[in-house]
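Let us practice reading a record.
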Amino acid sequence: MKKIFTLAALGLLSAASMEAQAQITLDGKVSAAEIGTGTGKYQLAGTYTGTHSVANKGLQSVYIATSATKLYIMVVGSSESTDYPGFVVYLNVPGRTGVAAGTQLKGGAAGDSPLKHTPTMDMQTDYGFRATTAPTGDNNVYYSYVDYTNGNTAPVPDTYQGNSQKAGVPIVASATTGPVLGARFSYLSSASVTAAATAGSGLEMELDMAALGLTTGNAINVMAGYVKDGGAFTSDVIPQVVGQTADLGSSPNFSTLPGSQNVTYVVGTGVTATRNEVAQQLNFKVYPNPATAATTVSYKVLSANQEVELSVYNSLGQVVRTLAAEKQAVGTHTYKLPALAAGTYLVKLSVGADVTSSKIVVE
């Protein structure tokens, strides 16, 4: 019998245990032996540490891994309720043209699927996946996906892929072509998010990299959420919205929130720094905010001859000003924010491979 460790105690594990060679088992849970670095090991992509708008339900963490041929996404949390809530995962992969960042998704066609919601993401959105859990006492979990690479005209097809039980036994997606060809889904139920954190249980997805067009070195973007029956986002999304304690609703605009609402994972390398971590590293600041005539944007370039792009986007995701687009020398660089019409904007900074952003309000 495989021994399962409390995730909160992983920091106490020895280095030897973290280097174990066990491969990922698709069973709706992440074990200590499956966490580490390199091929076939889960890496922590994000945690939820805030107040849950649905008491003791929702998300605890997200892990991502790849093998030689598969992409794994593990959403740790509890979705048990008296109705039909669930988990959603949104994905951006290279080489596909989905819905641009800052553009509202039109929502899926299936009335019984949470993917009918209409969020605005801060990443390009290619695919959305859902696992809807039946009421407590009913062991069914239902899976489907939307493919935004085929367009964003409502209603977007929401293709049902089958159902599993809540005991962790995986199912194979019913698709015979497309991005979920050969995919498998598994769900292991826990009564509460506290219990899920201890067991490492929740939704586990295995996607075929060939079906997604992924190879070593490709960067993907992932966002996960806990949604109510009907598709409204609760407070629980990963990456976490700092200070969020109420439901986000059916049509949240993640592109206007501070920080980043997606995590980047590089196949063969692992999880990269979040935008908040990048902002700290680059000492990226936009101040004062709300904007005045004296609002300044500043940042540091840490290595010589880095390609830098500094742009301002409106709430529709359109570039309204480009302040820099050039190679810049090491050191601190400062720009005055240009005059803008009243509204909410996103100041986006790219320095080499590092990307971060900050929301700014013009009154």
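A brief commentary: The longest helix spans residues 275-282.
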